[in-house]
Amino acid sequence: MTKNAMGSASQNAGSADLSVWEKLDLVCKIVLILVTIPFRLVAGLFRGSRGAKSYRVHVGHGLVRTLTGRLTARQTQYMGPPTNKGYEAWAKENRFPPDTVELKHGGLGHWLGNKKAKKVLIYYHGGGFQLSANPFYFKFLSDLIQDLGKQGKDLSVFLLTYTLTPHATYPTQLRQSVEALRYILSTSQYSPSDIYLGGDSAGGNICLGVLSHLSHPHPEIEAVQLNRQLGGMFMLSPWVSFSADWPSVREHEYKDVVDKKSGLKWADDFLGGRKGDNYCEAVLAPPEWWANAKVRDVLVIAGSEELLLSSIEVFVKKFKGQVPNTQYVLVPDEGHVSVILDSMIGVEQTRQEKALKSWLSDVI
């Protein structure tokens, strides 16, 4: 891929150059957030049943909610590099040559591990369609490859950089995600049964959108023809509903890392004036929509303290009735995508991560 093409794709993926006033505003917001830390440290001691079970997690989640609730999309994207730049930095730090593929419709695919491995995981990162994959994603995926390798499981990862909001809206991200699958099917040695899809939060949303597209081609996206089912798919805390009118939203408001106001804003930015549909809000799809889904094994993981829990459980009930080889794991005392988000506040290995690795070991 040429340097100019990479630069263009990086801009399209979602990066921001702030004005002087935006930078000053960002500094002021960060200072205000830092000032609240002593209060949060004390208040966390008296959190009671409405707070997260873990003190560290309760304080960390509160700070993240405040940060995402205050910053604009441009400010948030300014604070971290686009996914493709993060991948290049990870490759340099870990001393391997980056291998990036420019896909149709503006996406980028990044290889982790040996791309000639027997199985491949196409991974769609989360972040409300507005945040890039941070270094914790690259560590998480690299650890998956290494841990499975120790068990004799040969896996590579193809991580997608898709265009973030507000630079593009639905169905751009789904179109780019479908192209990642199309690329693997058409240019590699992998048969569908060797291919696995994975994603967290908004990435889980994408997984379900791609799965829907395989059985019910989206009218705005070129169809993909499969001669057999995909090997498997896992979703961590999938974002299946853009509504905040769920019991868990009220119950876990002060426990989870996700902020209701930010979630609603991210959903609006993603939809761009459209209404949700079966492809982007999986909970809206009737059970029969998932009949003959083109995937063999499915794993859904959720935390008992997460905002999205109610919508996830309604979705799983519909989905599992049509895709019986679906495993649903509800992890107690953990929140939204703890695999990534709790690792950012010093939690070494979550039960969500252990459950995922156990499932992958069984199905690969």
In short:
The protein has 364 residues and is α/β, with parallel strands linked by helices. The chain has 14 helices and eight strands.
Q: What percent of the residues sit in helical stretches (DSSP H or I)?
A: 40-55%
Going by CATH, the homologous superfamily would be: Alpha/Beta hydrolase fold, catalytic domain
> How much beta, percentage-wise?
5-15%
Overall mean pLDDT score? 91
* Strand neighbour order, sheet with most strands: 1-2-4-3-5-6-7-8
Give the C-alpha Rg: 20 Å
* CATH architectural category: 3-Layer(aba) Sandwich
Q: Report how far the terminal alpha carbons are from each other.
A: 31 Å
Strand tally, please?
8
Q: What sort of overall outline do the alpha carbons produce when their principal axes are compared?
A: globular
Biggest β-sheet strands, sense, barrel: 8 strands, mixed
How many individual domains? 1
Query: What letter string, H or E per element, gives the SSE order?
Result: HHHHHHEEEHEHEHEHHEHEHH
Q: What structural class results from the helix and strand content?
A: alpha/beta
Uncertain residue ranges? 1-12
Lay out the secondary structure.
Layout: H1 3-14, H2 20-35, H3 37-43, H4 55-70, H5 73-78, H6 83-93, E1 100-102, E2 108-112, E3 119-124, H7 135-150, E4 155-161, H8 172-187, E5 195-200, H9 202-215, E6 230-236, H10 247-251, H11 260-271, E7 295-303, H12 309-322, E8 326-331, H13 338-341, H14 351-363
Parallel strand pairs: 3-4, 3-5, 5-6, 6-7, 7-8
Antiparallel strand pairs: 1-2, 2-4
